[in-house]
Design a protein that fits this description.
By secondary structure, the protein is of the alpha/beta class. It has two domains: about 80 residues, Rossmann fold; about 140 residues, NAD(P)-binding Rossmann-like Domain (Rossmann fold), CATH 3.40.50.720. It contains ten helices and eleven strands. The strands form three sheets. The protein has a six-stranded parallel β-sheet with strand order 1-11-8-7-5-6. The protein has a three-stranded parallel β-sheet with strand order 3-2-4, sandwiched between helices. α1 runs parallel beside α10 and α2 packs across α10. The protein is globular.
């Protein structure tokens, strides 16, 4: 049986350490990190994610500000972002995605100060990450790297195949896994929905990351024995046997694939908790950078 990469367990350990660090900051006369979250619209998943982020912040002792709008004009949202940019009491800002169609996601991302962009989506953070310079790294890739590190999974000279080229997960993770460091120093193949003969590539993977949002895409025939599988996908699929009427399904057919793996993440409970933990780490770093600048 494979080793389950328990994101809940690792994230809990990170939160405990962060809580201790916040206590030390306050004991020395500093202030707790402060994260602002903007939530626009009525997307149920977004509300669930924001609730989880707020709960995690509370657990570690961060201050939070929630700015919630059922609807808002783009110009008004950009004005609010500018207000947060100029507020010295706030260390980090995230605007929960997806946004309503009338709002430009890129315009919103570009308007956030890079030093407060704890989601790591601003072009300046993205570019510094690509150059292996200090930056806020996108939370999901950072969470994956942290998980690999915690379980001491070898990555150097391994073939890492990533299925999914999104700018928030697949593309940045491909850069990070190819950099000369640990976790990293891997040979990386980045695939997508139009990749021909996908199965031939996934069967070559020592480390396989699935991040496309296509339930059950990765089957047992698509992986080799001993592979490490990181399942980023999480989709609600109908299930009449569940009280909610649905269940959460990853991009990997877990029951069929797991017996072939050395390590695998569950869904839920794998990458999701690590994404939130990484967001907390970025927020603490933003607060520390602000304190150093102020000094």
């Amino acid at each position: 049986m494979p080793t389950i990469l328990d994101g809940h367990l690792v994230a809990q350990a990170i939160r405990q350490k962060l809580s201790q660090q916040v206590g030390e900051i306050q004991a020395s006369g500093g202030k707790a990190p402060h994260l602002a979250i903007m939530l626009i619209g009525n997307d149920p998943a977004s509300h669930t994610y924001v609730k989880a982020k707020l709960k995690a912040c509370q657990e570690v002792g961060f201050c939070t500000t929630l700015m919630q709008h059922e609807t808002i004009a783009e110009k008004d949202l950009l004005r609010q972002i500018e207000e947060v940019n100029n507020d010295p009491a706030i260390d980090g800002l995230i605007v929960q995605l997806p946004l309503p169609q009338h709002i430009s996601v890129q315009q919103v991302i570009n308007s956030i100060k890079p030093e407060k962009d704890v989601d790591g989506f601003h072009p300046l953070n993205y570019g510094r990450m690509a150059r292996n310079l200090p930056a806020h790294v996108p939370a999901t890739p950072l969470g994956i790297l942290t998980l690999l590190d915690h379980y001491n999974i070898a990555t150097s000279r391994r073939h890492c195949v990533i299925v999914g080229r999104s700018s928030t997960v697949g593309a940045p993770l491909s850069i990070l896994m190819g950099q000369n460091r640990y976790p990293g120093n891997a040979t990386v193949t980045l695939c997508h929905s139009h990749t021909q003969q996908l199965s031939e590539l996934t069967r070559q993977a020592d480390i396989l990351v699935a991040a496309v949002g296509s339930p059950g895409l990765i089957t047992a025939e698509m992986v080799k024995e001993g592979v490490v599988v990181i399942d980023v996908g999480i989709t609600r699929v109908p299930d009449k046997t569940r009280k909610a009427g649905y269940r959460l399904q990853g991009d990997v057919d877990f029951e069929a694939v797991a017996p072939r793996c050395s390590h695998i993440t569950p869904v839920p409970g794998g990458v999701g908790p690590m994404t939130i933990a990484a967001l907390l780490l970025n927020t603490l770093r933003a607060a520390q950078n602000r304190a150093y600048t102020a000094d």
